[in-house]
Amino acid sequence: MTTHAARHSTAPANDTETGTDDKDFPLREDIRLLGRLLGDTVREQEGDGVYGVIESVRQASVRFNRDDDDSAPARWPRS
Length: 79
What we know:
The radius of gyration is 16 Å and the shape is flat. The chain is built from three helices and no strands. By secondary structure, it is mainly α. 59% of the residues lie in helices and 0% in strands.
């Protein structure tokens, strides 16, 4: 198993999206890993349908927060 320090030893000194130093890169990398693990677990335990609903809400939430897309919540699945 890869250790936390080993995974982050090659973290870039510069964030390519913003062009600035990114001290939070290791944290963002860990959050992405946990998100992938959670998604894999949901898909395995509950199936592709439930995973798809969760992923749709997640993507709309990202658009809403990143782009100030006020229409994003309207695209959330309704039950």
